[in-house]
Amino acid sequence: MKGRVISAHGRHYIVELENGQTRQCYTRGKKTGICVGDFVRIQPQAEDEGSIEETLTRKNLLYRSDEMRSKQFAANVDQLLIVVATEPFFSEDLTGRALTGAWSADISPIILLNKCDLTSGMARAQESLEIYRELGVPIISSSIHEPEQLKQDLLPLLKDKTSLLLGQSGMGKSSILNVLIPHARAHTQEHSVALGTGKHTTTSTRLYHLPNNTGCLIDSPGFQAFGLYHLTQTDVANGFPEFKTHIESCRFYNCTHLHEPGCGVLAALKQGVISNKRHELYERILLENQSATRY
């Protein structure tokens, strides 16, 4: 039987079959590395159980990081919906890394600016996001206090696609999920002003169907680090689409775009065509990955 993994807990999985039924599944032996969004073949077992025999070829794979360890958590994603908020202020570094992860895996990103009813942080948030707007990333303003408007803006973009809902804790991601998919009943909690951050309200990754089965939405735990350690230097560069045309001008085929003479990217940086902030992020990611590989 063929199906799709809609939930994963350790080495136990819930697989939704093509007929809509679900089975509790496990893997044989030491087989691991299966994640939400994977298409699999299973062997039915007693009752509503099954064993996963094969993972079908993936279109892409996303990772999340914990210190120096990366763990895959979602596969076969069409677009990444990154939730940020006017308050508490979001991490520009994490937002940039999530975009790099999306672009390197050929996933279309969308930024959702939430809590737009809290106008005090609006100007600062808009200013920080302008750099991504210039790169062509759609930026949608939202408030869960206007649920019908939120659905009207988002559901057409999510139609017939598998989208991953991603955001730092405290951005209101679970509340957005509850608006889009009421039966998800995701846990929500008030943001802790004292701590300046939200606690993780989602503990595992889960795939939901949008109303009338018009698409899939994968919800994931609030993230504090996006997994990029598995990327090669070329992959990282692919995660910065504004580099692409300038890379063609590089003198050396293995140019790292950090210090080489005749580098098209550095020339564009000097001319102000590429932003300093973006190139600094590229350099941080690349040097971190090189350090992780070395040790």
Written account of the structure:
InterPro entries: G_CP_dom, NA-bd_OB-fold, P-loop_NTPase, Ribosome_biogen_GTPase_RsgA, RsgA_GTPase_dom, RsgA_N. Its cofactor is Zn(2+). Residues 75-224 form the EngC GTPase domain. Residues 59-226 form the CP-type G domain. Zn(2+) binds at residues 250, 255, 257, 263. This protein has 295 residues and is an alpha/beta fold. It folds into 3 domains: 2-55, Beta Barrel (OB fold (Dihydrolipoamide Acetyltransferase, E2P)); 66-227, Rossmann fold, CATH 3.40.50.300; 233-294, Ribonucleotide Reductase Protein R1, domain 1. Helices cover 27% and strands 27% of the residues. The protein contains 8 helices and 14 strands. The strands form 3 sheets. It has a 6-stranded mixed β-sheet, with helices on both faces. The chain has a 5-stranded mixed beta barrel with strand order 1-2-3-5-4. Strands 7-6-14 form a 3-stranded antiparallel β-sheet, covered by helices on one side. Strand 9 (108-114), helix 2 (122-133) and strand 10 form a beta-alpha-beta unit. Mean pLDDT is 88; it is low at 187-202.
Gist?
With 295 residues, the chain is of the alpha/beta class. Helix content is 27%, strand content 27%.
Topology:
Elements lengths: L1 E8 L2 E6 L4 E6 L11 E6 L4 E7 L5 E6 L2 E7 L3 E7 L6 H13 L3 E7 L7 H12 L5 E3 L5 H12 L3 E6 L5 H8 L25 E4 L6 E4 L6 E2 L5 H6 L5 H4 L16 H7 L5 H19 L1
Parallel strand pairs: 3-5, 8-9, 8-11, 9-10, 11-13
Antiparallel strand pairs: 1-2, 1-4, 2-3, 4-5, 6-7, 6-14, 12-13
